[in-house]
Design brief:
GO terms for molecular function: protein-lysine N-methyltransferase activity. Keywords: Cytoplasm, Methyltransferase, Nucleus, S-adenosyl-L-methionine, Transferase. It comes from Cettia cetti. This protein has 210 residues and is an alpha/beta fold. It has a single domain, classed as 3-Layer(aba) Sandwich (Rossmann fold), CATH 3.40.50. 38% of the residues lie in helices and 26% in strands. It is built from seven helices and nine strands; from the N terminus they run H-H-E-H-E-H-E-E-H-H-E-H-E-E-E-E. The protein has a seven-stranded mixed sheet, sandwiched between helices. Helix 3 (66-73) links the parallel strand 1 (56-60) and strand 2. It starts with 10 loop residues before the first helix and ends with a strand.
Length: 210
């Protein structure tokens, strides 16, 4: 993931510069946010609901692009990844080349101010980018509103939005995306036990744009 609001010399871009160097040195793609199971969860949902393989998919805050590679391996053909960090896009390009997935499109984009051509997607996926926005010390609430507005612009009516979060509960996410979206499904995530109470450290939801 990367934050679409921190300056480019921030910790996000610096982290991806380090991961890019590591990949060039030893071929390691770096951090997989939320782990492998989060990617499997997304792909299983798409397959279960027989989402056509030619559906246009946008990965918001693609990071190292590994999710897109896994989607391509599962047969999805119309894949786009965006990230605010140029180093993240450089890394994802290297990963794409290594895997021979030339059909994956990658772009440096600020999702809070998306370019005009970023539109008409059937599916949008977020694994942690909305979380990163939520941590912004400068007007996080305003940034979240911009995010929802951008999502409405880039996602087709009746399109699907799959979000994985470690900052927000189901109820909080329902509130954040109440304008223009309806909940379809909560996806199972690992549970933890603390002080005798059972909870989820990760929330994964599927919304549909109205």
């Amino acid at each position: 993931i990367s934050s679409p609001f921190f300056p480019l010399d921030s910790s996000w871009d610096a982290a991806y510069k380090r991961e890019l160097q590591t990949f060039q040195d030893i071929g390691d793609t770096g951090e997989i946010w939320f782990g492998e199971e989060s990617m499997v969860r997304i792909i299983r949902w798409l397959e279960k609901h027989k989402v056509p393989l030619d559906s246009s998919v946008l990965d918001i805050g693609t990071g190292n692009g590994v999710l897109l590679v896994e989607l391509a391996k599962s047969g999805y053909m119309n894949l786009t990844g965006i990230d605010y960090s140029p180093s993240a896009i450089q890394l994802s390009e290297k990963v794409r080349e290594k895997e021979g997935m030339s059909n994956i499109k990658l772009k440096v984009e600020d999702f809070l101010a998306p370019s005009a051509e970023l539109s008409g997607f059937d599916i949008c996926i977020d694994k942690g980018t909305f979380d990163a926005i939520s941590l912004d010390p400068s007007d996080a609430a305003g940034k979240r509103e911009l995010y929802v507005g951008s999502l409405c612009r880039v996602l087709k009516p009746e399109g699907f939005f799959l979000i994985t979060s470690c900052n927000w509960t189901k109820e909080e996410l329902l509130n954040e995306f109440r304008e223009g979206f309806e909940i379809l499904e909560e996806l199972p995530t690992p549970k933890f036990c603390f002080g005798g109470r059972i909870g989820n450290s990760v929330t994964a939801l599927v919304f549909q744009r109205k």
